[in-house]
Write a structure and sequence with these properties.
alpha+beta
Length: 326
């Protein structure tokens, strides 16, 4: 009886009052302030990686401009090299550093006049690039318009319209290889300064899935049909000032890419929102072993397509209600 009263009080507080909304926002900000970074306060390896990625990607974007300004970005490059050296002392040379080496190597090739215009700056970059012990990953690449034409030579309208949220899966097990391929494809989603903050937590154990789906509470009537469960999260350690909402923007972009990638691998899916009170989010993280720095973006129930099944029509509003031509 006491537990029922607590449950009703909890539901009323968080779902039917503005106070619950305020408490959730406080929780939101607490996580962000605890884990996000500033330029002068890199708290973790993830924060270092996010900062370095943000900095080297600025140089990559500059190199990709139609007419890059000669010798652009000197202060940013000096800072990039300084923090990179600190990072290598702390964590060693990894993929992040190889991207920085590649980017700065391209920068030197595009700015050969540096050797006479600013020899100290030229040597600073050159000596740093020489430390590279393997392949160079970052920089820019040439793309031929013909390649784009070939790549988009598909009936995208039919493809995107054929995907719906499915609530009636076959009993056949989802192929792990196909699932991994879909996730690998979704990695090409754009993100703020290429920081790629998303994470995918994959569950196959039925008892664990049941616990998580019970908290989500939007899967009644088909939860036992779900073959495997994915939880998409965004890591707040990858973000800095004025970016508390960006974790959800980037996570949402990745989630949509993943849904389409799953469809391309003939894996059916259903979006399950995680608009949960903060106490429920804490419980989900505890059950799913998700770090406290990560925010829940959404759950995705997956399974294989049946030969025939029904889905909601989900009528779309007309283009005129969406497009505002200025």
């Amino acid at each position: 009886m006491i537990n029922k009263i607590k449950a009703k009080l909890y539901a009323f507080l968080f779902w039917q009052t503005r106070s619950g909304e305020v408490l959730n926002k406080i929780y939101d900000l607490q996580i962000f302030f605890r884990n996000s970074f500033t330029t002068n306060n890199l708290k973790s390896k993830e924060s270092y990686q996010a900062f370095l990625t943000k900095q080297y990607h600025i140089i990559e974007k500059g190199l990709a401009l139609p007419k890059p300004r000669a010798f652009f970005g000197k202060p940013k490059i000096k800072k990039l090299i300084k923090v990179s050296n600190t990072y290598m002392k702390k964590f060693g040379e990894d993929r992040i550093i190889k991207n920085i080496h590649g980017t700065l190597n391209t920068y030197l090739k595009r700015n050969k006049g540096l050797i006479t215009q600013d020899l100290d700056f030229y040597n600073l970059i050159l000596n740093f690039v020489k430390k590279n012990s393997g392949e160079l990953l970052g920089g820019v690449k040439k793309v031929n318009k013909t390649e784009i034409k070939d790549a988009i030579n598909l009936d995208f309208k039919s493809f995107i319209k054929s995907r719906s949220s499915v609530r009636f899966f076959s009993k056949e097990q989802v192929s792990i290889k196909k699932l991994q391929k879909a996730i690998a494809l979704a990695r090409y989603t754009p993100s703020v300064c290429n920081r790629q903050s998303w994470r995918v937590h994959h569950f196959r154990d039925r008892s664990t899935m049941n616990l998580l789906l019970n908290i989500q509470n939007g899967n009644g009537g088909f939860n036992q049909s779900i073959n495997q469960l994915l939880i998409i999260t965004g890591d707040t350690k990858k973000f800095t000032q004025m970016e508390s909402n960006q974790v959800f923007v980037d996570g949402g972009l990745f989630s949509m890419s993943l849904l389409l990638s799953l469809h391309s691998q003939e894996i059916a899916s259903c979006c399950l929102n995680t608009c949960l009170p903060y106490l429920d989010e804490i419980e989900v993280k505890k059950i799913a072993n998700i770090p406290q720095s990560e925010r829940l973006i959404m759950m995705i129930g997956v399974g294989n397509y049946k030969e025939t099944y029904e889905v909601a029509i989900s009528d779309r509003v007309p283009l005129s209600e969406i497009l505002n031509v200025n």
